[in-house]
Amino acid sequence: MDISKSYLDHLYYHVFSEERFLAIDPCAIVWQLIAHTQCQLDLEIGALFVAMITWGNRKAIRTAALNMLGNEMQWNPSAFILEQQYLDSYQNAKNDCVYRTLNRYKFIEVCENIYNALTSYRLAHPYEEPTLEKCLEGLDMKQCIATITEWLAPAKLGTMGKTACKRICMFLRWMIRTESPDFGLWKSHKPSELYAILDVHICQLTFPILKHKQPSWAACEELTNIFRTWDKTDPLKYDVALMTLADRDTARDKKK
Questions:
Q1: pLDDT digits (tens, 9 = 90+) for 86-142
Q2: Which pLDDT does position 246 carry in this prediction?
């Protein structure tokens, strides 16, 4: 398979379709949240929780995410956290399951971690409205990934420096990258600082250009460095290109 700069440029500029991408990608659920709120903290928290449960079947992810944002959070994620509404969430969930291996108790622990981070910021800056971006202010990208990993530790999204931390890197792409299909909410970091979003499937696609063949942090850094060599200002446009390729291959396989 040709995994070269020229081929991925072709996919990004001539094959990628925002409409087709959002028809199946989890970030589309966050775009739905925008119809209910323009508050940055709402969008940050909503996006973080959608990213947190983005693994497995896409239809199941969509169902679980819409239930979380619409039914549990009432399309107001910031109030859900800051008013500690999460303490009463998922009371009717079958077997206390939020999504797959994430149960109600681990979910509440995650919410508590985010509540504590926002409360700490409020105490240090009493005249400012807290945001997740402000909580991470002054940290470089690796430190941001490590901090978010700690917030989400009960949900087990990986270990900084060991695993690829795929879902956290995906969340950061949504927040920071300014081009479609992303949101560009955060101005404190640049798209050039982002790290590649790496899982088993992307490892398989990039097999010809990677020395590291498993979705580890070493492989993430290796792929990121390749992307940055190809485009120093917007390296993760190649992640969008790879996802376009992966989705096209999946659609072709279904037709066989």
A1: 999 999 999 999 999 999 999 999 999 999 999 999 999 999 999 999 999 999 999
A2: 87
**Residue 163, phi then psi, degrees to nearest 5:** -90, 170
pLDDT band at 253 (very low <50, low <70, confident <90, very high): very low
Q: pLDDT, tens digit, for every residue of 237-247?
A: 999 999 999 88
Average pLDDT rounded to a whole number, residues 59-75? 97
DSSP bridge partners of 103: 97
Q: What's the rounded Cα separation, in Å, for the pair 101 and 83?
A: 26
Strand-strand pairing, 102-103 and 97-99: antiparallel
Residues contacting residue 145 through CB under 8 Å, at least 6 positions apart: 160, 165, 168, 169, 172, 195
Task: Identify residue 182 by its one-letter amino acid code.
Answer: D
